From TrEMBL, chain A:
Keywords assigned: FAD, Flavoprotein, Oxidoreductase
Keyword presence, S-adenosyl-L-methionine: no
GO MF term set: acyl-CoA dehydrogenase activity; flavin adenine dinucleotide binding
Top-level taxon of the source organism: Bacteria
Coiled coil: none
Gene name linked to the record: acd
Family the entry assigns: Belongs to the acyl-CoA dehydrogenase family.
Protein name, as recorded: Acyl-CoA dehydrogenase
Domain annotation Acyl-CoA dehydrogenase/oxidase C-terminal: ranges: 197-325
TrEMBL record, chain B:
InterPro entries xrefs: Acyl-CoA_Oxase/DH_mid-dom (IPR006091), Acyl-CoA_Oxase/DH_mid-dom_sf (IPR046373), AcylCo_DH-like_C (IPR036250), AcylCo_DH/oxidase_C (IPR009075), AcylCoA_DH/ox_N (IPR013786), AcylCoA_DH/ox_N_sf (IPR037069), AcylCoA_DH/oxidase_NM_dom_sf (IPR009100), Mycobact_Acyl-CoA_DH (IPR052161)
Keywords: FAD, Flavoprotein, Oxidoreductase
Acyl-CoA oxidase/dehydrogenase middle domain mapped to chain residues: 125-221
SUPFAM superfamilies to which the protein is assigned, alphabetical: Acyl-CoA dehydrogenase C-terminal domain-like, Acyl-CoA dehydrogenase NM domain-like
Top-rank taxon: Bacteria
Record bears the keyword Flavoprotein: yes
Name the UniProt record assigns to this protein: Acyl-CoA dehydrogenase
Transmembrane segment boundaries: none
Pfam families in the record: Acyl-CoA_dh_1, Acyl-CoA_dh_M, Acyl-CoA_dh_N
Acyl-CoA dehydrogenase/oxidase N-terminal domain: residues covered: 8-119
Cofactor(s) recorded in Swiss-Prot or TrEMBL: FAD
GO cellular component: plasma membrane
Family listed: Belongs to the acyl-CoA dehydrogenase family.
């Protein structure tokens, strides 16, 4: 029995955190947010140099839990890049028998070929202009890897989430490598894994919002005292922590259930996605309220997390949709 | 991560199951006969090292090395067989650990065996009419008898759970009126069966009255031997910190919460609302919290097994449980509809109940409020999370009195 992180898992999180602290400080995020790009090569290369691309390879000694821990840290830093798409493209391609798709595998693992996630029927895809391949499909239609180029039409939009800008993308007559039929268990596994990773990104974002609000409350003074001394604010902050800290275990469980192929893994993924996306939205709102005027500025940057929370919430199905699925899966 | 307990634990589980199959056959026994059977069963459980594992053999325990996995297997298997576990209550959860940590040899000899065998039932004599969250303000006073052998106690305690059943009480009394607030309190044990003590049940908001409600106690020159004082004179506040620690650990129970949630789903079925999309959404939303609580309990359990500190999340479990209880109460209230017009039989308590319909949820709807008050009110929990958990500075008023709150 073990249900807390190992020293190695903590070390991986520290490595990713340290890398992002170096290559993705707030001024980089600011510059990126006001720029026209949907991809940041420098931070991508730094993350890929850590070997993250291969976490979900079938013969890796890591699994979805480790992928979730990495995405938690990426979420905390509002990291750019299609990290979830990349990890899942590797997972799906490596488990498929499609030779043409598998020809991309080494470059996907290395991160030199960038994969964006286009699951579900939404036309919006993160980092689409940077992607050389797209992981497309749904539970109903199966999975495929689509090559950028002819037949892939990308129309940039002004994105709400400035850290991972979206474009509107259509795939008609593009080069397409089938990875898994709808009936292939791999299809549902990848769709479920995506939910867990979005939940993990949301967890990280919510933790970050809580941490910086607490830190600010210790520094900022009003009425001659740190504002964190005032019970009204203290209780707001306690509730932020109460909302996010126990929810961490929901992400761990969903990822563990996936890795251990437990029967309740699909439902655990739906529950984690629904719950953490709600938590994330609440945390970002509470953080801005807790900061006062500075929180309402663009400059302070909390809005990037609020925007990311808005994106995660709607991405791959809203909390209400996943709760409806969870109700069905429970046989209610 | 791995939620299986491992081969060693599974072998142990088989052993516990065999023990239960051989020893727990209550059959048709009733009344005194059943009571004697349970007593003998518990003795056998101690013999095998299943019950009172942290209590030394010389006081009637089984003195086992700390092993949270084994302890969990025992709870699971006893639960499955519906066999009685430890006696429970304040005595086992608070008095015994306090005596093991801070008691004298004489006190341990006198009280531990009788407590774990269920002969002594303990009331917690902390709260007073004027002292609740600000527990260190207790005013019930104790003075030494002229010969210095007994404490003479005068004052009042209130909200004592199980007060009508209690044979003994552990209490905080003021012995050094001139000392600083927290340094003037002494922790005493007292026999409740004496002329200087009057007890009265207090009718609860649940409607419950009589033998199973909380009580108030009046002390009018009540006495207890000085040798029944736990810890030094004026050290009672610090002794009481041990007990509250144990109380916190025993309140958060993930299995109980999970069972209650399953019953809430059953209620939605029973009332024909399970197909209602709003109800399904509310149930799944609440279940997110129930599962987060459950998996966090796994996390705490896993850290405890590995001897690692789980950090601030430990401080959140009571408030989390309280808040989930509120959410469940609100949905239950929606689901029972007009059944809310009918007071359930044996409301809030343990009287004869007979067959009860959805109105029985009024027990949970009202009872869940107890959690937000007893064992440290929710605002006090929020202070603890904010100050001890997040490291925020203490409230100015409270900062003046170090460690002032319950
Ligand atoms: C069912 C039940 C069983 C109980 N059993 C026992 C028992 O066996 N033995 C025993 O000794 N006691 C028992 N109690 C009493 C319980 O411990 C107290 O009720 C509790 O500590 C609160 O104290 P109080 O009732 O005096 O409320 P108060 O302390 O007066 O609190 C009233 C309100 O003020 C708030 N408040 C108080 N201080 C602060 C602060 N510093 N900051 C913000 N808000 C604050 C509280 O949160 C609460 O909402 C029981 C209570 C209940 C409901």
């Amino acid at each position: 029995m073990r249900f807390h992180l190992s020293a190695e898992q903590i070390a991986i999180q520290d490595a990713v955190r340290g890398t992002l602290a170096d290559c993705w400080p707030m001024d980089r995020l600011h510059a990126f947010a006001d720029g026209a790009d949907d991809f940041d090569p420098a931070s991508w290369e730094a993350l890929m140099a850590l070997g993250l691309g291969g976490i979900l390879l079938p013969d890796s000694d890591m699994g979805l839990l480790d992928a979730a821990l990495v995405n938690e840290v990426a979420g905390a830093a509002a990291a750019p890049g299609p990290l979830i798409g990349q990890l899942l493209a590797v997972a799906a391609v490596a488990r498929s028998g499609n030779a043409a798709a598998r020809a991309h595998l080494d470059a996907l693992v290395a991160g030199t070929t960038v994969a964006a996630l286009a699951l579900g029927d939404s036309p919006y895809v993160q980092c689409a202009r940077a992607a050389q391949v797209f992981l497309v499909g749904s539970r109903e239609s199966g999975l495929a890897l689509v090559e950028a180029g002819a037949g892939v039409v990308i129309e940039p939009v002004q994105p709400t989430d400035r850290s991972r800008p979206v474009s509107r993308v259509t795939f008609e007559g593009a080069v397409r490598h089938e990875l898994a039929a709808a009936s292939d268990p791999l299809t549902a596994q990848i769709c479920d894994a995506a939910l867990v990773l979005v939940a993990a990104d949301s967890l990280g974002g919510a933790l970050h919002c809580t941490d910086i609000s607490v830190a600010y409350a210790k520094e900022r003074e009003q009425f001659g005292q740190p504002i964190g001394r005032f019970q009204g604010l203290k209780h707001q902050l306690a509730h932020m922590a109460l909302d996010v800290e126990p929810a961490r275990a929901l992400v761990w469980y969903a990822a563990y259930a996936h890795d251990a192929a437990l029967d309740d893994a699909p439902r655990a993924a739906a529950m984690a996605k629904a719950h953490l996306c709600d938590v994330y939205v609440r945390s970002t709102r509470a953080a801005i309220a807790a900061h006062g005027g500075i929180g309402y500025t663009w400059e302070y940057g909390l809005n990037y997390w609020l925007r990311r929370a808005a994106f995660n919430r709607a991405w791959l199905g809203s909390p209400a949709q996943h709760r409806a699925r969870a109700a069905d899966l429970a046989g209610w | 991560m791995d939620l299986s307990y491992g081969a060693e634990a599974e072998a142990f589980r088989a052993e516990v199951r065999r023990f239960l199959a051989d020893n727990w056959q209550p059959a048709e026994r009733r009344g005194a006969e059943l009571k004697e059977f349970i007593r003998a069963f518990r003795r056998a459980g101690v013999e095998r090292g299943y019950l009172y594992r942290s209590v030394p053999r010389r006081y009637g325990g089984s003195e086992q090395p700390v092993d949270v996995i084994r302890a969990q297997v025992i709870r699971e298997e006893f639960g499955r067989a519906r066999a009685p576990l430890e006696v429970g209550g304040n005595g086992v959860n608070m008095t015994v650990p306090t005596l093991l940590e801070k008691g004298t040899e004489e006190q341990r000899e006198l009280f531990i065996r009788k407590t774990i065998e269920g002969d002594y039932i303990w009331g917690q004599g902390y709260s007073e009419p004027g002292s609740g969250s600000d527990l260190a303000s207790v005013r019930t006073k104790a003075e030494l008898s002229p010969d210095g052998t007994r404490w003479i106690i005068n004052g009042q305690k209130i909200w004592t759970s199980q007060g009508m059943q209690s044979t003994h009480m552990f209490m905080l009394v003021r012995t050094e009126p001139d000392a600083a607030k927290h340094d003037g309190i002494t922790y005493l044990l007292i026999d409740l069966d004496q002329p200087g003590i009057t007890r009265r049940p207090i009718r609860q908001m649940t409607g419950e009255q009589g033998a199973h409600t909380f009580c108030e106690f009046f002390f009018d020159n009540a006495e207890t031997p000085v040798s029944w004082q736990v810890g030094g004179r004026g050290q009672g506040w610090y002794v009481s910190r041990t007990t509250l620690k144990h109380e916190r650990a025993s309140i958060g129970s993930a299995d109980g919460l999970g069972n209650q949630f399953r019953k809430l789903v059953d209620l939605a079925r029973e009332t024909g609302r399970i197909g209602d999309p709003l109800v399904r959404d509310s149930l799944a939303r609440i279940e997110g919290f129930v599962l987060a609580h459950r998996y966090t309990s796994f996390r705490l359990f896993s850290c405890a097994a590995a001897g690692e500190d789980a950090g601030p999340v430990q401080l959140m479990m009571k408030l989390y449980l309280t808040e989930i209880g509120h959410e469940m109460a609100l949905l239950a209230q929606e689901l029972i509809g007009e059944y809310a017009f009918i007071e359930p039989a044996g409301a809030g308590g343990r009287g004869p109940r007979g067959v009860r319909g959805p109105e029985k949820w009024l027990d949970q709807i009202m009872g869940s409020l107890g959690n937000s008050i007893a064992g440290g009110a929710s605002n006090i929990q929020r202070n603890i999370i904010g100050e001890r958990g997040l490291g925020l500075p203490r409230d100015l008023a409270l900062a003046l009195e170090a460690g002032a709150e319950k």
